[in-house]
Amino acid sequence: MSSIHPPGPAPTNLLRLLRGPVAGGRAGYFRRLFQEFGDLVHIPVGRDGFYLISDVDLIQRILETDHRRFSKGRGLDNAAVLLRQGLLTSEGALHERQRRLIMPAFHREPMRRYAQAMTELSAARAASWQDGQVLDMAQEMMHLTRAIVARCLFSHQVGQDADSAIDRDLTTLVQTFAAPGAFLAPVWMVEKGLLPGTWGAPAARRRMDAYIRGLIRARRAAGADDPRAESGDLLAMLLAARDEDGGRMSEDQIRDEVMTLFLAGHETTANALSWTWYLLSEHPEADAALAAELDRVLDGREPTEEDLPRLSYTRAVLSESMRLYPPAWIIGRRTLQDEVMLGYGIPAGSNLLMSQWLVHHDARHWPQPERFRPERWLDGSTEALPKYAYFPFGGGPRRCIGEAFAWTEGMLALAAIARLWRPRLVPGHPVEPQPLITLRPRHGIRMRLERRA
Ligand code: HEM
């Protein structure tokens, strides 16, 4: 194997990376590396080193074609403190079995039920606003998507009452992942809640744990794990799931899955919606086109799941928003053996980073990459793109299991709210992406609500 490293910056140490370019704008730092060094960049930090990969064919090979040669990356070690053996963090045979068991909960029939809850909760939130009111849309969207996932998962009314204990605990836990350094900090620091602003996390984790276990036991006691039970929510489906030899999930496993789906299932969609409101406010012509489509298709009523195929501009708006601001902005993997990539030797145990943020802005694939232009999704120009020029939901066997859920939720929430309201950015409010585990707006998005005539 070649001992020559791919090009990259001078060696740095973890602390500098955490404090300096990372805290100050990790995405900007990666973008500079990509511009200076190209499709494969060696970042000599720590024992194993990081490699930043922006070649779309290589990304396809890692996530899809040769996926067995790679494991999940370093960034998820810390997420596993909370999510343990859940779907996002588990590996190998356990992951394969769990994915098979959970998949039916995202099929068409249950999705219809979730869709009803999505519209209902979005409309309820929209009805609680007043003309001229100023609010933080990022926070509003976080509450909304949390309420939706809680209702679809276990029929809980969380988010209706923002002060409820479970809502507070979830906020604390999400902040653990949002804390500066959460991505690279040693696992024990995350476990003990030692990162800035996360001291409450261990207690919140214990309370959430007890809460979810309580729900599972109550359901089991009520006979909800009978496979013939009429299942309404996702928890009921997890309890009823059986593999080929009749085995079912342990209480620990269900806890891990519920926690994973809860966390993975709301923060990303909230970010997608928040960035969408911002972009629509900055692009009145796109906002007008969206409003026209909603008027035409919905004719004054709430959206339903059956409307989705006809809401093509709504879908294009979300697609373009997730291109410019991919809610999951980076994916990590680790090499299990020595590899050769683009002619360079990459040793076993290396950390690979693939960033949607970089690829979605790459001018080799996207003409005028910085422009928000939903029309590019409707004029056929995206059809000829390489598969991994756009990968907001990842790819291969670890592709997002909640993708259909997220599209349904994103489109219904957008339609239910945008048919009534036009949120406008408060002039002067700074909008800046903050790339943590997900891509959030650093200062929230303060908007003034205008009722549509
Ligand atoms: C716009 C919204 C969303 C985005 C952008 C997104 C993005 C992603 C990405 C990129 C991955 C792959 C990570 C990797 O390969 O390392 C992933 C995995 C996952 N997502 Fe999502 N996601 C979204 C919504 C959801 C929702 C709504 C749910 C659940 C209700 C969910 C649950 C999961 C789970 C459980 C995994 C792990 C799947 C596995 O490894 O088998 N996500 N998501």
Helix and strand composition category: alpha+beta
Broad shape: globular
The proportion of strand residues reads 5-15%
Task: Report the bound ligands by name, code or SMILES.
Answer: protoporphyrin IX containing FE
* Number of beta strands: 12
- Report low-confidence residues grouped into runs of 5 or more: none
- Report strand order across the widest sheet: 1-2-8-5-3
Largest sheet: 5 strands, mixed
- How would you name the CATH homologous superfamily of the domain at 77-336 and 402-451? Cytochrome P450
Question: What would you say the CATH architecture of the domain at 77-336 and 402-451 is?
Answer: Orthogonal Bundle
Q: End-to-end span in angstroms?
A: 67 Å
Written description of the protein model:
- The mean pLDDT is 88.
- This protein is an alpha+beta fold and 453 residues long.
- α5 (108-127) runs parallel beside α16 (403-418).
- The longest helix has 24 residues, at 14-37.
- β10 (433-435) and β11 (439-441) form a beta hairpin.
- It has a domain at 77-336 and 402-451: Cytochrome p450, CATH 1.10.630.
- It has helices at residues 14-37, 56-65, 75-83, 92-102, 108-127, 137-154, 165-178, 187-191, 201-221, 234-240, 251-264, 267-282, 284-298, 312-324, 356-359, 403-418, and strands at residues 40-43, 50-53, 70-72, 134-136, 331-335, 339-341, 344-346, 351-354, 421-425, 433-435, 439-441, 446-451.
- A five-stranded mixed β-sheet has the order 1-2-8-5-3, with helices on both faces. A three-stranded antiparallel β-sheet has the order 4-12-9.
- The protein is built from 16 helices and twelve strands.
- Bound molecules: protoporphyrin IX containing FE.
- The site of protoporphyrin IX containing FE (HEM) has 23 residues, from α11, α12 and α16.
